[in-house]
């Protein structure tokens, strides 16, 4: 009898610990994501030749961080080492290293996105169905750590999506996301429109 009570108590305690740690992990992700947002805003307004004319963080808006927007995508590397002619907002073309393609399903839609090499990180420029309403009309981008690629998988965190500098200052020249990188659903994650 005593052993049964002890066993039941042990199981109950284990369940409580599992729930506690799983909830703590979610809170930890939110806290980390919010800290990254604050760092991004601070770095942007304090950088030399900041695109934010007023040097104020008050115009930034973001979707609430949500782990459902972390995607574990299939990754197909660009074995041929092809380059890509990235169109720019000033009508010029920038030859860019194409790293590979990320493939995943989002809200029932198959998505394939081109990933580019930006030396210290990978670059994922994209458009989605929030552009022009909730988010910047010219699309957004994510800098992806090179550590996010493991074998044939790549982790994409859309909570880390940011506006191009053109969204803050029209004098900047920005890449135009490739047509192939148009996501056919609303990506309600990351940075929203910037308000002066």
From TrEMBL:
Pfam families associated with the record: DUF1684 (PF07920)
Transmembrane spans: 6-23
Keywords: Membrane, Transmembrane, Transmembrane helix
Protein name, entry field: DUF1684 domain-containing protein
Species, as recorded: Lacihabitans lacunae
């Amino acid at each position: 009898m005593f052993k049964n009570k002890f066993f039941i108590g042990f199981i109950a305690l284990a369940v409580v610990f599992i729930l506690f740690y799983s909830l703590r992990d979610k809170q930890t992700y939110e806290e980390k994501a919010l800290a990254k947002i604050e760092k991004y805003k601070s770095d942007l307004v304090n950088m030399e030749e900041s695109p934010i004319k007023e040097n104020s963080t008050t115009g930034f808006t973001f979707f609430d961080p949500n782990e459902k927007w972390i995607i574990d995508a299939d990754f197909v590397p660009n074995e041929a080492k092809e380059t890509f002619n990235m169109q720019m907002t000033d009508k010029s073309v920038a030859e860019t290293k194409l790293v590979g393609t990320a493939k995943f399903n989002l809200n029932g839609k198959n998505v394939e996105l081109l990933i580019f090499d930006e030396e210290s990180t990978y670059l994922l420029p994209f458009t989605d169905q929030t552009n022009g309403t909730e988010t910047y009309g010219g699309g957004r981008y994510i800098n992806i750590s090179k550590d996010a690629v493991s074998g044939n998988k790549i982790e994409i965190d859309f909570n880390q999506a940011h506006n191009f500098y053109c969204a803050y200052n029209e004098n900047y020249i920005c890449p135009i996301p490739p047509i192939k990188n148009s996501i056919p659903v609303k990506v309600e994650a990351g940075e929203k429109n910037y308000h002066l």
